[in-house]
């Protein structure tokens, strides 16, 4: 089955096609999905045992069967396999046979905030497939479980019957993000007291909330169905207000930014698992943790270290760059290269300013023949010896041998063998070397 066919079938709410597309998205394959809002994404959070699964089950049974419903349950990951630990989908087994309902369990994979890239990728697929409601059940681990606010249009915070002190403890995490607060298990006698405490707390929140929607408290019993119809009505009212105020596209922007960040975390995790050699180098003291991290992020490839500019007066050049608002290091002398240098720090690389120490140095001769300007380009490499072998094998000419530079060991490739460019190779100094 090709991708085009899967996409077409998913738009017709083919649950098998939807499942396959989500699996592809989880694997990091970019899908050609239209970037527009269709679904009401509803985050359902709250402390463990609040009745989140039971409430979603009750709402899904009450929503008319001509509406498409998707349920994503975010379960804690196994620390050994990374897979879903609880398997909440088992609790909703009865719903899977309904043609209008799609259910999938997603593992957190250890990601901070309870969400990962795969979860947002699944939401994108389900919205593309035309889901009317997408329920996102979070782990419910208190303060760490708040990334859902960047994904969901409406957040339900479930609060089981609790004492006032327990509600106050919840306030530090979940209580600031809700749009609708649900007193779950309202068949319990303590629920009325919890409802009053929440109402008092929400009155304070309403005063500081700037948007037009003010938080609402609803009493519900998912087990007996009490209050579920009222809750669905409030949810639909919230969606209509978001549509009328043009807020849905704002949430899409928020979701896409978080998707980018979480995908970056995903790539980093994969890189960490593939570069165990760096961990060994840190353990045996050959690399600092910081240097190992830099190499990890650059995936072992050569990267631009700096661009060197020859100047006649270093102090004057430093002052000019500082006037531009740039951070410039204090000058330092590198006897081996016959120069005094200063580094201009940029967001992704550096500029090295070079002033010759004596008239017979290479930089002095450069200034005499060409004047001030770009002297060389420097690449940082992880394995200098191996890169030198590659350069020689490519017919490039190495000038002399490795020597001490400003921050490590350096060697130069002759400009006549590289289109007139003097290329410096830099291996940063590591521990115990």
Summarize the structure.
The chain has 13 helices and 16 strands. With 433 residues, the protein is α/β, with parallel strands linked by helices.
What does this molecule look like?
- Strands 8, 9, 10, 11, 12, 13, 14, 15 and 16 form a 9-stranded mixed beta sheet that branches. The protein has a 7-stranded parallel beta sheet with strand order 3-2-4-1-5-6-7, sandwiched between helices.
- The model is unreliable at 78-88 (pLDDT under 50).
- By secondary structure, the protein is an alpha/beta fold.
- Helix content is 37%, strand content 21%.
- It has 13 helices and 16 strands.
- It is elongated, with a radius of gyration of 30 Å.
- It has 2 domains: 3-267, Rossmann fold (3-Layer(aba) Sandwich); 300-428, 2,3-Dihydroxybiphenyl 1,2-Dioxygenase, domain 1, CATH 3.10.180.10.
- Helix 2 (15-26) runs antiparallel to helix 4 (117-128) and helix 4 (117-128) crosses helix 8.
- Output the CATH topology of the largest domain: Rossmann fold
Which CATH-level-2 architecture of the largest domain?
A: 3-Layer(aba) Sandwich
Write the CATH homologous superfamily of the largest domain. Answer: P-loop containing nucleotide triphosphate hydrolases
Whole-number mean pLDDT: 83
The major beta sheet can be summarized as:
9 strands, mixed
- The first-to-last residue Cα distance is 56 Å
Tell me the helix content. 25-40%
Cα Rg: 30 Å
Count of all domains: 2
- What is the name of the CATH class of the largest domain? Alpha Beta
Instruction: Name the poorly predicted regions.
Output: 78-88
Strand content: 15-25%
Coarse structural class: alpha/beta
- Count every beta strand, where a strand is a DSSP E run of 2 or more residues: 16
N-to-C SSE series? Answer: HHEHEEHEEHEHEHHHHEHEEEEHEHEEE
How many helices in DSSP terms?
13
- Silhouette: elongated
